[in-house]
Structures are given as structure tokens and as C-alpha cells.
Design goal:
By secondary structure, the protein is an alpha/beta fold. The chain is 38% helix and 17% strand. It contains 13 helices and 17 strands. Helix 4 links the parallel strand 5 (127-131) and strand 6.
Length: 417
């Protein structure tokens, strides 16, 4: 049988004029976005470019086999592709290959750290520090760990422009704090955390720090070695990759000292009925048959993003955020949330109109936004709101999408005016 290498297709070259970077023009790479549909829900999940779709199709239709166990050639080839993806992730975020754990998503990565690091290491009287803007996935796992260990959770407030207040964090931290867990970019407000300063503050009292990078990795260059954090998590489906795959990065000395979270095949060294010994990290945290095609699809997604350039992606989305905020601020009934330099996200409320009604009317005009509490109910409580409307941008968006959004909001105000 003839075998084939695992190729990674790249997007078309992007235009530049006289040294000036033009807006991204890659919409044609995304077959699930039809003409006239403004998809503004990338913070929830990104649409998939053709190279990622092709990689997934090849993986199932031509190259598929299990990994790590088979001695036949196709299994060996797929194992090489799987581990090549691990190396690709490590390079992408500036870590080591043996520090990359494949998980189902950021939620599973955070739960893994809560169960395998926090519960064995925390005791009554220890403290965990979170912030007011965290996603439920970066709250509930720590509450479960606190219930098991007797630890206490503290919450950092926000600044007036909706950023995590690092000055307040500095004043709150004590030697009793053993873990800090913060979002790199807020999924509601788009505010960007100064991760390096947050890490330095956590380490100044001996605490470990986990960063939720779900909204950061698709648009900001991340180097975990430079940031100095202890754990970093992100999900593939927000990075133009498949659902059901994500990454936990952890410092190797920490991962190596952590017990397994789940038991089964692949994560073992030797099994007897009397005793089992475990594979070294990261293998000990990848029990069972993994999401093989999710991993190779993630590799293709990283290649796609890197070929465009995160600096270009961030510049493109920042320009769209400025345009959207400028346009929406001209509507008297609209209240904007988050800082002016939010990363790819614009949350807002329309006076007297529930966000669900806003989103429904926008959908009638082929504009897709998110409406609700965005899995951040404590943040909604602090804002005094039941929900917000949220427009979020990706590489495929353009000024025409903002025009459609504004036209839709104007229709909302006429209907409810």
C-alpha cells in the first residue's frame, strides 16, 4: 500500500502596497460563509478555512489510522503527524514539546490543572485569586477544587475601563495565595491582560499562575517562556481549527510532578493488578485514543494563521474594532462596554432592548452576533446587566460587516423606538 505524507496547505499570499499592509482579504478561504452573511461571532467559535477542512478530510479519507500503538506503516505515519503537531504547537506558543498536553479544549485543560495540581497541593486556608471578568470555565473548576481542599477564592475587581485591576491585585496578594487564574483576553470585553506583570505579581508571593488564552492565541503573539506563566490553555476551535481539541501548556517540572487525572490506555508505563506506573508528561495526561484528526487539523490551523501573521491579524481586527466602536458610538441608544483597544470584541447594549431581541432582529438581516451572559454571569452582575450583545471579529471580516451591523442596530432602534 502506498502511503502519503501529511501535507499542510497554506492560504494565498496577501497583498501589500508600497510597504503598507492592506486589510485582509481571505474570505474566499472560508466556504461556510456565504455572500451577504456577516458572521460576527468568532469569539464563540471561528469559521474554518479550506486548508483546515482539507486536512481533516485527508485525515479521515486517506491517512487515517490510530497512533502510538500500530507497527504498520500508516499507523507509524499518523503517529509522526500527531507528534509533529505537538512540536508545531510548542513552536507556536514558545514552549517545549514535552510541555504540550492535548485536551478536548481549554475547559478540560483548566479542569486538569484543578484536579491534578490544585487538589493535591492546596490545603485549608490557602487562597485562589481570580478576576471579575473570568469565563465560567475559569471559575467553576476552582470552586470545585476549593470545596475539596478548604481553600478560599478571592476576586480581583476591574478598572473603570473594564480591565483586570493589577494594582488591586498587587494589594490583595498574600503568601496564602497559591494559585492565580486569569484570562489573557476577556471573552466579553476584549480587554487585554498584562500577563507579564500579572505573572511577576503572582510569583512575588510564591503563587502559580494559569492563563486562559482562548481569546488571545487567535490574534496575539504568545510566548509562554517570555510571559513566565506556569500554565496556559487554549481551544483549537477559536483558532480556526476543529472542535474538540485544545492545549494545556505547563512548565515541565510542574507537569512531571502532577499525578494523572484520567486512567486508561496510552498513559501508562507498566500495569499490574498490584500497581501501575505512569508514562512521563505529557503522555500521562492523554489517556485513551486521542482526537487524532483534531490534532492534525489544529496543526493546519496554526500553519494557516502563521502564514497570514498574527501581527497582521491583530492589526486587521483592531481596525475593525475601531470602526465598529466609532460607528456604534454615534447611535444615542447604544452603550459600549470594554476598553477602546479591545482585542477583536465589541460588547454593547441597546437601551430598552434585550440583547436577545437585538440578535434576533440582526439575524433577520443576515448578521450573526452573540447575545447573553457569555458564560460570565459574575461579570454581568458586576456590570448590572442581565446580558450584552457581542460582535466579534476574525480574519474573514471586513468593513462591510460593520456596515451591516450598524444598519441592523438602526433597525432595532426604529422597531423599539
Amino acid at each position: 500500500m502506498t502511503t502519503h505524507p501529511i501535507e499542510q496547505a497554506l492560504p494565498r499570499p496577501l497583498p501589500q502596497a508600497g510597504g503598507e499592509t492592506l486589510p485582509l482579504d481571505v474570505l474566499a478561504d472560508f466556504p461556510a460563509i456565504p455572500a451577504g452573511w456577516a458572521y460576527l461571532d468568532t469569539a464563540a467559535t471561528s469559521q474554518k478555512p479550506q486548508p483546515v477542512i482539507d486536512a481533516i478530510t485527508r485525515g479521515y479519507a486517506r491517512d487515517y489510522a490510530t497512533v502510538h500503538r500500530g507497527v504498520y506503516q500508516r499507523s507509524a505515519d499518523m503517529t509522526l503527524a500527531y507528534e509533529a503537531a505537538r512540536r508545531r504547537v510548542a513552536i507556536f506558543i514558545g514552549g517545549r514539546e514535552d510541555e504540550v498536553v492535548f485536551v478536548r479544549g481549554a475547559t478540560e485543560g483548566i479542569n486538569l490543572v484543578a484536579q491534578s495540581w490544585a487538589i493535591p497541593n492546596l490545603k485549608p486556608g490557602d487562597r485562589i485569586l481570580l478576576s471579575q471578568l473570568e469565563h465560567h470555565s475559569n471559575i467553576v473548576p476552582w470552586q470545585l477544587a476549593a470545596e475539596r481542599t478548604g481553600a478560599v477564592i478571592d476576586v480581583v475587581p476591574l478598572t473603570h475601563d473594564h480591565r483586570i485591576d493589577l494594582d488591586a491585585m498587587a494589594a490583595m496578594l498574600t503568601p496564602a495565595h497559591k494559585l492565580v487564574a486569569l484570562a489573557h483576553v476577556s471573552n466579553v470585553l476584549g480587554s487585554i491582560l498584562d500577563v507579564k506583570r500579572a505573572t511577576d505579581l503572582a510569583h512575588s508571593v510564591g503563587a502559580k499562575i494559569l492563563i486562559d488564552g482562548c481569546q488571545a492565541v487567535p490574534r496575539l503573539a504568545v510566548n509562554v517562556a517570555d510571559l513566565g506563566c506556569d500554565f496556559y490553555v487554549f481551544s483549537g476551535h477559536k483558532l480556526y481549527g476543529p472542535t474538540g481539541i485544545g492545549v494545556l501548556w505547563g512548565r515541565h517540572d510542574l507537569l512531571d510532578a502532577m499525578p494523572p487525572w484520567q486512567g486508561g490506555g496510552s498513559m501508562i508505563d507498566r500495569v499490574t493488578f498490584e500497581k501501575t506506573t505512569y508514562a512521563p508528561a505529557p503522555g500521562r495526561f492523554e489517556a485513551g485514543t486521542p482526537h487524532i484528526i483534531g490534532v492534525t487539523g489544529l496543526h493546519a490551523a496554526i500553519d494557516y494563521v502563521d502564514a497570514i501573521g498574527l501581527d497582521r491579524i491583530h492589526a486587521h481586527e483592531s481596525a475593525l474594532v475601531r470602526q465598529a466602536r466609532d460607528a456604534l458610538s454615534g447611535l444615542n441608544s447604544v452603550r459600549l462596554l470594554g476598553p477602546d483597544d479591545s482585542a477583536g470584541i465589541v460588547s454593547f447594549v441597546v437601551e430598552g432592548v434585550h440583547p436577545h431581541d437585538v440578535a434576533t432582529i440582526l439575524d433577520e438581516g443576515n448578521v450573526a452576533i452573540r447575545a447573553g451572559h457569555h458564560c460570565a454571569q459574575p461579570l454581568m452582575d458586576s456590570l448590572g446587566l442581565p446580558a450584552t450583545a457581542r460582535a466579534s471579529f476574525g480574519v474573514y471580516n471586513s468593513a462591510s460587516d460593520i456596515a451591516a451591523l450598524v444598519k441592523g442596530i438602526e433597525r432595532v432602534t426604529r422597531i423599539f423606538g
